[in-house]
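TA notes, week 10

Several of you asked for a full example with nothing omitted. So below is the full record: structure tokens for the whole chain, then the designed sequence directly under it. When grading your own attempts, check the secondary structure regions first.
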């Protein structure tokens, strides 16, 4: 950055430890982009991305080893019942990677894991309900339950507190804390002071300069130099 030129790829990297890392920064500073890069959703992102020391080198690897919870839970719910939603997420997670593979059928043990996740997230009583009939907080917990079915190295949540009341926020924070204590890396895009209070580390999106995504970043790198 010193001479204002584009940042060398080797100088760019995001390394996340176990624990809860908050991504902060003003509107448009690239918070969601960082979340999407780490989740493997931005094509052509260059840099070294590590989670708990493990290098997630390719987009495919990041897609496989991370799970993303979007701001709007409605966008991630597609099945006809709460139970099916989580079971489907587990089946996807168990699928052998590759161009073509058969969707596995859940064993009774795996069915029990699905039930345990629903119980843990306070959704077991809604098992047969349509996902869209749940409240905002319940929908979000359902999306998180689905995300955890992947057992991701990194769980990413983009602005998870918008629309959550105090009780649901505390519940979310406790859940993220449990995950962090179990050794998972959690990245949460937020400017919610109440949630920030629960986080272990803070990453300012403005400091993640030079994160190279397509052509636009080079322009950005020159502008910010
Ligand atoms: N490293 C980058 N390279 C190229 N484009 C980027 C980069 N970071 C962000 N952008 C672009 O800048 C715009 C704003 O980024 P983004 O949506 O990630 O910001 P945000 O901090 O999440 O904003 P908000 O607070 O409004 O949610 C987007 O169009 C995005 O594509
Ligand atoms: Mg955003």
């Amino acid at each position: 950055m010193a001479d204002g030129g584009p940042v060398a790829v080797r100088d760019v990297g995001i390394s996340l430890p176990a624990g809860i890392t908050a991504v902060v920064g003003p509107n448009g500073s690239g918070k969601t982009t960082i979340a999407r890069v780490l989740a493997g959703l931005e094509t052509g992102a260059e840099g070294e991305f590590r989670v708990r020391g493990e290098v997630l080198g390719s987009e495919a690897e990041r897609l496989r080893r991370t799970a993303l919870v979007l701001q709007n839970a409605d966008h991630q719910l597609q099945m006809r019942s709460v139970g099916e939603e989580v079971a489907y997420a587990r089946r996807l997670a168990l699928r052998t990677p590759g161009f073509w593979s058969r969707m596995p059928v859940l064993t009774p043990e795996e069915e029990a894991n699905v039930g345990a996740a629903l119980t843990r997230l306070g959704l077991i009583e809604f098992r047969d309900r349509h996902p869209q009939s749940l409240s905002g907080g319940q929908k979000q917990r359902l999306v998180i339950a689905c995300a955890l079915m992947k057992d991701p190295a990194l769980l990413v949540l983009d602005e998870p507190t918008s629309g959550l009341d105090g009780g649901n926020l505390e519940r979310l924070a406790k859940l993220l804390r449990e995950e962090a204590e179990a050794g998972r890396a959690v990245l949460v895009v937020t400017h919610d002071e109440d949630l920030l209070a629960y986080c272990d580390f803070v990453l300012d999106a403005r400091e993640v300069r030079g994160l190279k995504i397509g052509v636009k970043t080079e322009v950005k790198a020159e502008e910010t130099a």
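Confidence is low (pLDDT under 50) at residues 1-10, 215-225. Use that as a sanity check on your answer.
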